[in-house]
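WP5 quarterly update. Target: aspartate carbamoyltransferase. Source organism: Arachis hypogaea. Length: 380 aa.
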Amino acid sequence: MAATSLLSSCCMHMGMVPPKMAANYLSAQPFDHLKLRSFGGPESSEKLKLLHKGDEFLCRVAQVERVPSFSVGQKFQLDDVIEAQQFDRDTLGAIFEVARNMENIEKSQILKGYLMATLFYEPSTRTRLSFESAMKRLGGEVLTTENAREFSSAAKGETLEDTIRTVEGYSDIIVMRHFESGAAKRAAVTAGIPVINAGDGPGEHPTQALLDVYTIEREIGKLDGIKVGLVGDLANGRTVRSLAYLLAKYKDVKIYFVSPEVVKMKDDIKYYLTSKGVEWEESGDLMEVASKCDVVYQTRIQKERFGERFDLYEEARGKYIVNQDVLNVMQKHAVVMHPLPRLDEITVDVDDDPRAAYFRQAKNGLYIRMALLKVLLLGW
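Structure tokens (predicted):
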């Protein structure tokens, strides 16, 4: 019996609530309760035990081999959104179906009474505002802190775990951006409520990858058999890392890496793609790659990731720019995408071309995040 199924069977009196929220409720009771977490690869066998208290609960010990990111036997019950690897193709399709329904919603009250805390340790415009807009459009409320690295108790030395334990007492779901890779996973292990990774340093940005794949499907009309050029800062770009993980779920995809030498895609992504049978190629010729691809995914060179190595930043910036010359070699159906913000890596005259999809891409982030909030808080 899966741990989440066991929790559901123990919580019938609570109504239909997501398993992680049920676990949070139970952990507040005087039971011997072991919370299980799983991200990525298989976990070792663990046990979940809830002891009888009065006439309310009586559950058997359950032996659990692995806890997936959604409940087996239920429709993709998500606990958290932490990394792109946690999704499979069927789950992606289900999320996209919910997102398409969200496109028709201007205002709803389905999340009335729910509170979302946005905890951002790094600057953000699109991600933070789109999450907040998503919550408010669905009738929920928002507790927000911007630049939490300086203007929260983190500046006093408080640990991330203590911050999460505090914030979960005020809210029903946490959306967090952090400067350290792996911070979101630590937060999810600590929290008894859903956690969404809104970017963890140079690690991952799974909700951006979800909206990127959603955008590709909407713009190109398919996800199998496509060619995608990832351009710019591939070493520090968490968006391209997460996108590569998701593209590996589809058939006959080819990925081109176009970047300055100092910010090449890291080997872990290359090894992952190879292990999944995804063809990839490194190239220094943006024009050639652009002529072949369905998607040119441009990124900025991230100055903040270079520290004091300004020489390396100057070496990398401005080498690959999407301009009218690039548009001229692109196929008519192809699109230019960018996670934004941009600096000078896409010239402004590209904006008027119908193949410039980056502002439509940003709008799609609203629908994907509305879908995730709905699924995490209410289920499917």
